Every structure is written in structure tokens, then in C-alpha cells.
Amino acid sequence: MHHLSYLQAIVIGLIQGITELFPVSSLGHNVLIPALLGPSWTASMNVGKQESPYLAIVVGLHVATAIGITAYFWRDWVRIIAGFFTSLRPVLTLRPLELRTAEQKLAWMIIVATIPVGITGLLFEHEFRVLFGVPSRAAIFLIANGVILYLGERLRPSKSREADERLAAETHAEAGTGPRDGELVAAGPGRRPPGAHAAGQRALRQQEITDAAAADGRLARESFWQALIIGAAQILALLAGISRDGVTIVAGMFRGLPRIDAARFAFLLATPVILAAGVLKIGDLFGSLGNGIRPQILVASVVAGVAAYLSVRFLMKYFQTRTLTPFAVYCVVFGGASLLYLGLK
Q1: Which of 50-54, 226-230, 319-323 has the lowest mean pLDDT?
Q2: Which of 86, 209, 212, 342 is spaced 20 to 30 A from 6 at the CA atom?
Q3: 87 to each of 84, 114, 223, how far by Cα in Å?
């Protein structure tokens, strides 16, 4: 029987929920933080050990994280899944596949983009985890992740920068036609009309839905080849310390996407991969590795799901105007400090 305290469960859930979405590598943090905190944490979160209880914990964490991301993008997933099934109608009547809508195209782009990391993960996930799930190596790859993020911003092609500028110009043009999204016109000095706050919230939600549909349209204009290249970048995240979302956002920008669309595509791509990673290991949760710690895993999963939802909500606003550079600096500093500490320990 394994031991995991509720405090450890809460900390593990927070680490997973935040670092899975922030471009700082959840796996890298799950390797490094236990090594920095001491033996009791390492015993619960030894990524590289075959019989580690972490293998049971990660099932709940991954499923909960995927649910948290889906909760934010639920409207988008309803449209994308509906687009996938409607795209199959011609096939059912023995006609060629036809992609007539943005949702249909985006659904198949996500499928195509997920193939490389899906195959690689199924074949080599264990080898990657054992070989690179070592604190010193995770610290080195975390530094490398910071360098990737920094160079991704510094060397971003002009096509991506121009796309950002076009989106900003369109946003400003729309804002100039009336009150900004969610902004209310006061009925009098310091007062709002009855129901104004609710009306403003409804207008804001409607604007978010409209913006999401417009983003899907822009993404659907990209080719399947572009989607495959961007999706293949996720393979690097099998290395503890390399962020899935970080390298995918950089790959998207290097293929000419505006930063916010690259982030959106990265989060949409991450959802099926994270969910599959949990579902495929479901046997570990209900097997001997989960004995004695299932209540704690439930707590960790709830915390991870809530943290993931709040993280993606924050990041989708953050990437509208801000860059990957702060995350790059964090990765280099934390990775370098961890490497130094582990060397002196």
C-alpha cells in the first residue's frame, strides 16, 4: 500500500493543473519539485520508477486536466465534434469526403495533428519517461525549453507578426464603433441601469463566442500539412522539461499563425492527447498502484481540473497582447537554479 498525504495531493494537483497549460512543462516540474522537496515527495512522485504510485496519480490528473480544458472550450468542442460527424455524411453514401465548413476542416486538422505524438507516445512513452525522468536531465531540458520559447519570440517570422497586427487593428476598429466589449454606458454619475452588469456579461460571452468562431475560420484556412508539422512538435514534450503547449505555440507562430491562434490551436490539440494519456493508463489507477491513495488521487484530480480551467482562461486573455518571454525567463532561472542545487546536494 502506498502513502500520499492530502497536502501532497493538493500540491501535486496544483502543479499539474497550472504547469500543463502554462508553457513550462508539467512533466519537468513533476520530476524536479519532488527532488527539491525531499525523499517523502520523491517516493510518491518517482516518474521513472516502474512501480511508482505516480503512475496511478497521473491517470486522475490527466483526465481531470482534460476535463478542465474542455470546460473552457466546451462550445468549441461541440461545434468541432459536430463538424466531424457531419463531414462523414458523404462517406456513408460512398461519396468522397467533403469539408465544407471551418468546423469540419478543424476537426480533421486536429486528428491529423495528433497522429505523430499519438504513435510516438504509444511506442516510446515508457522509454522516454525512464530515460529522461531524472531531475538533472529535467532541469537541463527545462532550460532548453526556455531557450526555445525565447527564440520563438525573437525569431518569429514576419507573417506571424503581421497577423498579430491585423488582429489588433480589427479589434480596435470594432471597438471604435461603440462601447468596448463588456463596457457599460453609465445611466448617471457613478450609476448603472438595472440589469446592466448582467447585460454586459452576456455581451462579453457573446463576443467570446464570436471571436472563437472567427479564430476557427482562420485556423481552418491553414493546410493539413501545416497542422501535421505543428502537431509533430508535441513529440518534444515526451522529454521531461519540454512544454507541450510551449513548443506547439512556437511551431504555430513559425508557420505564420498569430500568437493567440497558435495558443488556441495548442490548447485544442492538447485536450485529446492529455485525455488519452490518462485513459490508456486507467488500469494503474484501479490496480495495486492505486491501493490506499485513491481518495487522495480524487482530491488531486479536482484541484488539477479547477487549476487547468483557470489557467487556460487566464492564458487565452494573456496571449492576446503578451508574449512567451516571461515564461522563457522563468524556465531558464528555475531550471538553472535546480541544476545548481542538485549538483551541490
Answers
A1: 50-54
A2: 342
A3: 5, 18, 17
